[in-house]
Structures are given as structure tokens and as C-alpha cells.
């Protein structure tokens, strides 16, 4: 059985060759290289390339360009299957990370970041689409939690190897980048050999889809992208620039993040199934408001690290945005909408790193205060999700409902 010799329906295969396990292993393969790249990125930029907030903002904006162009994935699906595109994306990701250390200049870092990012974002687009097609609606959130948990375990492997080996073996950036990218390519080779081609279920529309009734999903996705930039770009940069975290210390912090994700993500997925998307997202955005306010005024390195771990723990709750869409969507819209959603998610990602990079030079606190405002906007949007979302019941305008109290 290989990808090139056998086709299978998602419901026909069980055990370790099931689509759910394939999604888990792909998530792990992605994180082996991306987690290592993310661990090293800020230190590589500061220690090897002398980057400031301006250059890191430019580099991060370049990283987000492929995410902004994720809608083009729907056209690639005219010439290849979604599973094929997911595999090709993992190939680009692995190669992009593996060669990063061999180009230690600003331009070289920008180019390898772009290659890596094309692979990462197109993989994420396909993984989201395939998850929503292959996983049953009733248990999708729980299964997605398990997928995140496996990805977090792969993060632990990457961060753990860096944490233990960086000082002990005097590793270089070049060596670690090469090993991380190579591991992804090895796992990819295994997937091609061990798994068949799985059918995607309902035939997907091979054109861009924008529907008025999906507007709340689009809005939540846009705000999630804006919030993510505050964390991924500036919270990590804060740890290195203000508090002087070294590579192995950043790896230790990421180890904590990965451990929490591995343990909490399956439970979060199960809780979303139990309590619903609305309550889960409201909890997330209240927590983020408090975290971003705290970031703005933190002066203690340990407290900052604690905030970073708490902030990262909230990411798993974003599963609720995906399962909300799964419940309201026409099944044939899933693949094209996944690409559009990633583009919407990255609209803010293209300009926020550069714009906020300049704001950072004047006031780092202002960056995080803006994040707190974003959290409040997201909180209002989350409150519009119905208790039981479904096709035809996508939004609950609770503030328009007439009062039920008797008149005096």
C-alpha cells in the first residue's frame, strides 16, 4: 500500500492507517521543522543578523504573504488532489527550514522564510480542509484536539533536542535547521509509502467561495489572525530583546508550551463538544484581554514567561472557529472556503508586523494594548455564535431581541 498504488474511502480504513491518524502524523511532521525554526528564529535574527524590530517586522510580513495568498490553493486543486498538495507543502516546508542556516544574510533569511512559509501555510490550508471533510461533525472538535496534541508532542521533541543539545554539543544554527527540516522530509517519505490516497468525500467546488451567511466566520477568522500576530511576532521578540532569553531558554519555554498543549488540547476539544463553540471562544477572549494587558506592563522575566505559556494555551480553543464553520457550511464549500479563510486570517498578518514593528520602536506597551482591544472585539463577535449553530442558523443577534420582562 502506497499513495501511488491504492485509493481508499476515509471510512474504509481503521487503526493506524485511518485518515485521523494520517492527519495526526502530518501535524507531527509539520511541527518537527516549524517548531525548531520558530524556536531559533528570533535568536538567529538577533545574534547572527543583528535584526531590530524593523527588520523582524519585515521578515514576519514576508512570512505571512503566502498565508495571505492561500486562496490560490483552490486553483492548485484543479491539477492535484488535496492530499497531494498537503504532501507537496510539507516538502517545501522541510526544504525551506533545512537550508535556512546556509544563507546567513538578511536577504537569505527573507528568501528561506518565504519558501518555508509557502509550505507551512498551504499545508495548514489543506489540513484544515481535509479535517473538516474526513472527521465526523459530532466528534470533530475532540479529534482536532488529538491532532493538536500530536503536533504538540512533535514540538516537545524539537524543543527538547534543542534544549538539551544546544549547550551540551555546542550546536550551530545551521546544523539544527538542517536536522529539523530533514526530519520532516523523512516522515513525509514514510507517509507516501504507508498511506493510500483517501477520497475527499463530497466533491469540492474548484472556485473561490464568499458567502454572506459565512460573514461571522470570516470576521472571527480575521480577528484570530490579528491576535496571532501579537503573540507570534512580538511576545516572542519581547522574551529575547527585553529579557535576554538565550536559545536554550527559549526552547525551555517552548517545551512548557508544548507540554501544556499536548495535555490540554484533547480535553479542550472534548469541552468544546460538550459546551459549544460560543462559550469556549468567550472564555478564550476574556483570558486574552487580561493576558495582553499584563504583557503591556510586565517587568519581570518569570511573569512574562508565565504570560507567554498562558497565552499559548488559549490557541487550542481556536478549534471552535473551525467546528463552528463545519456546522454551518455547505459540505462542498469546505476546501475553497479553507483557502479564503486563510487569506482572511492573514490580511492583518501582512501589515501588522511591519506597522507594529515601528510602533514597537516607540512603545512596546502600545503593541500589547492594541492586542487587548482586539480581544474585546473578538469577544463581541464570539457572543454572536448561536448555542447550536447549523445551516440557516449562523448568527444570534442577541442584542436585537425584545425584552421578555413584563411592562410595569
UniProtKB/TrEMBL annotation:
Alphabetically ordered keywords of this record: Membrane, Transmembrane, Transmembrane helix
InterPro entries with a match to the protein in the record: MFS, MFS_trans_sf, Sugar_transport-like
UniProt superkingdom: Bacteria
Organism, scientific name: Roseibium aggregatum
PANTHER family: INTEGRAL MEMBRANE TRANSPORT PROTEIN, INTEGRAL MEMBRANE TRANSPORT PROTEIN-RELATED
Listed name of the protein: MFS transporter
Transmembrane as UniProt keyword: yes
A single MF term (Gene Ontology): transmembrane transporter activity
Positions of transmembrane segments: 20-40, 60-78, 85-103, 109-126, 147-166, 172-195, 215-238, 250-268, 280-298, 304-325, 337-360, 366-385
